[in-house]
Target: Tropinone reductase
Amino acid sequence: MSETKLSLKDKRWSLHGMTALVTGGTRGLGHAIVEELAEFGAAVHICARSQEDIDKCLEQWKSKGLNVTGSVCDLLCSDQRKRLMETVGSIFQGKLNILVRFYT
Model:
């Protein structure tokens, strides 16, 4: 977690111990939200349709010390949505506090 970010903002906004799922988190507003949530201490999982995009973002966030994981999911496919929820449930031990859904 980036202490710099949290020190710049009121500590009452800490998200330590919280979990978040951001769909479409590799680009644009979704990407920015992932960074904000992670910088405030949340463990974040992202999904997108492209493994290449996910890997690129995860590498960037890892270099910043942010706790972000990711997996491929096309939200139009019910079997992929189900697998996503199983993955998220496993990673976060069944606890999901925040859901941010972007779809393009």
Summary: The mean pLDDT is 91. The chain has one domain: 20-100. The two ends are 29 Å apart (CA to CA).
